Description:
The protein is α/β, with parallel strands linked by helices and about 350 residues long. Helices cover about 40% and strands about 15% of the residues. It has 14 helices and 14 strands. It has a 6-stranded parallel beta sheet with strand order 2-1-5-6-7-8, with helices on both faces.
Amino acid sequence: xxxxxxxxxxEPQVNGVVRTLQSVRRVLEGQGHKVTVISxxxxxxxxxxxxxxxxxxxxxxxxxxxxxxxxxPHAVHLATEGPVCVAARRWCLxxxxxxxxxxxxxxxxYVEARSGVPAEWVWRYIRWFHAPAQSILASTASIRQAxxxxxxxxxxxxxxxVDLANFHPGVARxxxxxxxxxxxxxxxxxxxxxxxxxxxxxxxxxxxxxxxGDGPARAALTAKYPDAKFMGPMFGEELAQxxxxxxxxxxxxxxxxxxxxxxxxxxxxxxxxAYPVTGPVDILTPETGxxxxxxxxxxxxxxxxxxxxxxxxxxxxxxxxxxxxFLAALVPIIEEARAA
Length: 340
């Protein structure tokens, strides 16, 4: 099967969208499917205002169409709501080629957090973009309900997975974290305002706060919270070692749709503390984490969880299952295209 994935988020970006697409692509190609990725690095692009790490591609639908014609896909999936996918959407509609989309990011909330533009205004764009899709893939029940509530009923489940070869409780503890005063409280992700990271750094629970990741807010937060340990980006085994060395993983975001880092931490045996919002409420169980409106309360509670229970639950999330869900959503698209 030939599958075209069109996305505005791709390498060298490091985020949940990119990691999800990379992981699912790897599984699908291992099963013999042919997957092409049409991404911003193929075109002229400009830095996104306030977020220069993200590149906005300047591309016409005809250019996207030429790439799709050359690949001759059985199915087209639009992963994001940016200019590359808008161009692909336009081509698909002009040629009556059905497509699926995905809702990876709480884009309306992100825009509101970064610019002050009301989220409901952005939802108008979200509805316009996704309305023609055959299916909209979303990772949690909360997000699927949010899409339905905003007039987008064609939702399907697409879960996430963990690279269990890297993330498991048998990995060694990160040497730079092994001797830190405990409890060691870890955050992993982008260091940006929409991640609500300052709520974690300002929390009063004793111990050491560790931040793994990078982003536009890093310099300011490093200066403001000198007692926190900012360790920069980590990947693969080194990241697993950081999860393993932490006593609790803290997920302060209130705008994520899932939170891939939570299940990676759990797979390493580390319990999770979070707010009771979309993402954590869909993923965490009473045995594997704690949620509270007061982050200090959640941290204190999460520290009582059994690490073996966390690791066992984390192992239940696999990329093979995620790829199967993604592929199943494409089947009716393929059948309809063949009939046409």
